[in-house]
Amino acid sequence: MFILEVLNLIKMKHITERQRYEIYRMQQSGKTQAKIAFVMGCSQAAISKELKKGATKRGNYSPKIAQEATDERKKRFSYNRKFNREIERFVREKIEKYQWSPEQIVGYCKKNGIPIVSVERIYQFIRSDKANGGNLYKHCRHRLKKRKKCVGAGVGRIPNRVSITDRPPQVAERKEFGHWEMDLIQGTGKSYFLSLIERKTRYVILKKLENGKNADDVENAVFTALFPYKKQVFSITTDNGSEFSNHLNLCKKLNITVYFTDPYSSWQKGSIENANKLIRQYFPKKTNFDNIDYQTIINTQKIINSRPRKILNFKNPKEIFFYNFAC
User: Fold this and answer.
1) Where is pLDDT greater, at 256 or 327?
2) DSSP secondary structure string, 35-48?
3) Which CATH number fits domain 157-326: 3.20.20.70, 3.40.50.1400, 3.40.50.1970, 3.30.420.10?
4) Which residues, 6+ apart, have CB-to-CB distance to 24 below 8 Å?
5) pTM of structure
6) Exposed, middle or buried: residue 125 (CB in 10 Å: 0-12, 13-18, 19+)?
7) Of 32, 118, 154, 257, which residue is 20 to 30 A from 26 by alpha carbon distance?
């Protein structure tokens, strides 16, 4: 009777706040994810995703945290996406007057809560303007010459990716230790570095990829880099490069969640982008990383992590990182 009553009440497309407290109650009573999913009338994967969304630092499920994450996502994507005249004027001004790219326009609007359409929709508008004799495309950096596929076309190549929009708000706030960002830095030829940064402390880890940027090597490098801190690694945020397609293996090995940014939204992982600029100070473009030995990489990492940072009240990432790690 109880199960039928719950199913009648809660068979909805999205989990509501009331349902979250029901999930919490069932979890506290010892029910498995499969049992909770059956009662809730949804898949076990949906329950697993919900539990991760509302996870506390200790790994327990909090319906309050899960609801806050959902509210934040709704707030972020509640704006009108219709390409109206007001948006057209805004886009034209930013492109013609300031030469902003579509990615910059969308990124700026999302960050500041301004109604906007997608990056690809703006490119469609530019192409349409060009076809009708307009010169908007001339203000673009590449004048559309290098656009051979739609923005976001590569996202589908990564199976079971978890969007950054599902990332708990405490990660963005940098109040919790153990959330990382990662990226690759390219040298000449097929030489690459893997770069990682812990969001709260700005601690950087740098590793050379011996065999280029294939997914297996990237997976092994990330696991090797973070394994010593495994108990306090909770998430990694990265972009949609195919080299990160083994993310599910990392999730299993490190017991974490890997979040993926929106296409062409590097600002959503700004910490690692800034860290890469610091690294480039020591390994500028056109450097062949194959010629860089292990000790040089370690010494560079030590130097970067020992530099006092204004954002850390002029303490250095190394001391802040290991203080948090020891707690």
Assistant:
1) 256
2) HHHHHHTS-HHHHH
3) 3.30.420.10
4) 61, 62, 63
5) 0.58
6) buried
7) 257
